[in-house]
């Protein structure tokens, strides 16, 4: 346990940030899971594109807050679109 006043405050801030970042990471995982599932199962192209836009928006937002690195965000978005276009090519 922290003994100094500044260390107590720092521990409190770290806990608060940890919980906030954990929520963002959980949201990211859920969005990725939902989008991947929709790409595999969904046949409605409009709904799929809307979900992709939502996923990209969420990923970029989390990246802008510094929860994940910019390169990771780009990689995640790229892989989602790659799956999507592969699925569209199979259907056509």
Task: Walk me through this protein's architecture.
This protein is mainly α and about 90 residues long. It has a single domain, classed as Methane Monooxygenase Hydroxylase, Chain G, domain 1 (Up-down Bundle). The chain has 3 helices and no strands. The protein has helices spanning about 5-40, 45-65, 70-90. The mean pLDDT is about 95.
How is the topology of this model organized?
Elements: H1 5-41, H2 45-64, H3 70-91
Helix pairs in contact: 1-2, 1-3, 2-3
How many structural domains can be distinguished in the coordinates? 1
CATH H level, superfamily name: Ribosomal protein S20
**Which CATH top level class fits?**
Mainly Alpha
Summarize the amount of helix as a percent range.
Answer: over 70%
Unreliable spans:
none
Major sheet attributes: none
Mean pLDDT: 94
Got a strand count?
A: 0
CATH architectural arrangement = Up-down Bundle
Our Rg estimate from Cα atoms comes to 18 Å
Can you tell me the overall shape?
A: elongated
Strand content: under 5%
At the fold tier of CATH, the topology name is: Methane Monooxygenase Hydroxylase, Chain G, domain 1
- Sketch the topology as an H/E string, one letter per element: HHH
Distance between the termini: 61 Å
Structural class computed from helices and strand pairing: mainly alpha
Contiguous helical run count:
3
């Amino acid at each position: 346990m922290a003994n100094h006043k500044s260390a107590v405050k720092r521990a409190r801030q770290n806990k608060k940030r940890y919980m906030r970042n954990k929520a963002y990471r959980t949201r990211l995982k859920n969005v990725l899971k939902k989008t991947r599932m929709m790409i595999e199962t969904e046949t409605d192209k409009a709904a799929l594109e809307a979900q992709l836009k939502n996923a990209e928006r969420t990923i970029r937002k989390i990246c802008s807050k510094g929860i994940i690195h910019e390169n990771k965000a780009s990689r995640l978005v790229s892989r989602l679109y790659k799956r999507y276009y592969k699925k569209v090519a199979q259907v056509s």
